[in-house]
Amino acid sequence: MPIALNLIRLTFDSPGKVNLEKPLHLVIGSVTPTSVLLSWGTFLKMPYEGNIMNDCLENGHYTVRYRERNRKWTQQTCPASDMVIDNLKPNTAYEFGVRPNNEERSGVWSKPVIHNTNMGRSPKHFLSFLP
């Protein structure tokens, strides 16, 4: 069953504090038929509270990768633990992953999460994630 986007939040440490050998948890929510909100972290925290724009890193960044199933990866870097990806194709399954990076090296990729950009008839935002 889908989970409402405003009920879930991931907490994180900066990449300098994150165990680079342990994959992060990744949550994906549809924003529009062509955009998604990704959130990642080390722990699951419910209900969601706060402003996602407050989570910035001091000494590292995250690399987000995504693709249509069985296609070439697109990668973007992000200084925070949330990111909106837009200009996606509607009604299309995408695979997403994230990893932390510090000044010395990159961490391991999260487990891949598949999310379909189709929002259906409901105006609510729903999530895809792996526990």
Report on this model:
- It is a single chain.
- The chain is mostly beta strands.
- It has no helices and 10 strands.
- Pfam families: fn3.
- Residues 22-120 form the Fibronectin type-III domain.
- This is Fibronectin type-III domain-containing protein.
CATH architecture: Sandwich
The amount of helix comes to under 10%
Output the CATH topology. Immunoglobulin-like
Q: How many β-strand runs?
A: 10
Mean pLDDT: 74
The total count of helices amounts to 0
What percentage of the residues does DSSP assign to strands (E)?
35-45%
Q: Which stretches of 5+ consecutive residues score pLDDT under 50?
A: 1-16, 47-57, 121-126
What is the chain-wise order of helices and strands? EEEEEEEEEE
Class computed from helices, strands and strand pairing:
mainly beta
Biggest pleated sheet: 4 strands, antiparallel
C-alpha-based Rg, rounded: 14 Å
Strand order of the largest sheet: 7-3-2-10
Q: Distance N terminus to C terminus?
A: 13 Å
> Under the CATH scheme, which class?
Mainly Beta
GO biological process, one term: extracellular matrix organization
Organism: Hucho hucho
Pfam families: fn3 (PF00041)
Protein name: Fibronectin type-III domain-containing protein
Please describe the structure with a list of short key phrases separated by commas or semicolons.
131 residues; mainly beta; Immunoglobulin-like; four-stranded antiparallel sheet; 10 strands; 0% helix; elongated; disordered N terminus; Ig-like_fold; FN3_sf
